[in-house]
Structures are given as C-alpha cells and as structure tokens.
Amino acid sequence: MTQVNPYLAGATGRCPHCGEGMLFDGFLKVGKTCEACGFDLGAHETGDGASTFVILIAGFLCAFGALFSMFAFNWPVWLLLVVWLPVTLVACLGLMRPAKGLMVAAHIANNASEAGRHDV
C-alpha cells in the first residue's frame, strides 16, 4: 500500500487515511465513514477551527486590498463595496473547504481526538 499524504488528501477533499474516498458529504459536512476504506471520519470534527483561519486570511487580504484601492486610486465607497464584498465572499467560500479538509487531516495525522466526546 502506498503512503498517502494526509494533508494533500484533506485539502483536496479526499479521505486522509486512504486518499480515495470523499471526505465531505455536503459542502462542509464531514462524512461519517470513508466509502473506500471504511475509516471513521465522523470522530474527527474540527468545529470552528477552519473558519477562524479563513476569516483571518481572507479578511487580511481583502481588507488590505480595499484600503489600498481606497487610498491609492481614491475609489468612492460604493465602488469599494461593489468590488470588495463579492471578492471577500468568494475568498471565504473558496478557502473554507480546503481549510476544513486540512484541519480534519491534521486531526487524523496527529491521532487527535475530542476530549470527552465519547466518554460522556
């Protein structure tokens, strides 16, 4: 069996354990098990970790771009909103799925688990 890079597999939406099955059931819902290898993916839920990183990364890039546009090109406020709100939305949605896949892959690669999830 070839060694699978769990981070690359997670970022592309594949099972970090085998690299074959799908990681997500919907846009961001982690599947219960991998349909290829049967690995339990449901035990590795990341919560809000990925959204925090996406907000910080996309927020920095889009806020910097909006401020640069405002001061360098003297754009009016309505043009800033028309341009940078959709860019922010696309950046956040585009980064969210790979970031969540990377977080799940990090959980699996480091054998992390949620404290007390199955113990209570």
* Biggest pleated sheet: none
Radius of gyration: 18 Å
> What is the residue-averaged pLDDT?
91
Structural class of the helices, strands and pairings? mainly alpha
Question: Ranges with pLDDT <50 over ≥5 residues?
Answer: none
How many beta strands in the DSSP annotation?
A: 0
- Ends apart, CA distance between termini: 36 Å
Overall tally of structural domains:
1
The count of helical stretches stands at 3
The proportion of residues forming helix, as a percent range, comes to 40-55%
What is the general shape? elongated
The share of residues in extended strands comes to: under 5%
Q: Spell the H/E element sequence.
A: HHH
Keywords: Membrane, Transmembrane, Transmembrane helix
Subcellular location: Cell membrane
Pfam family, one: DUF983
Membrane topology: Multi-pass membrane protein
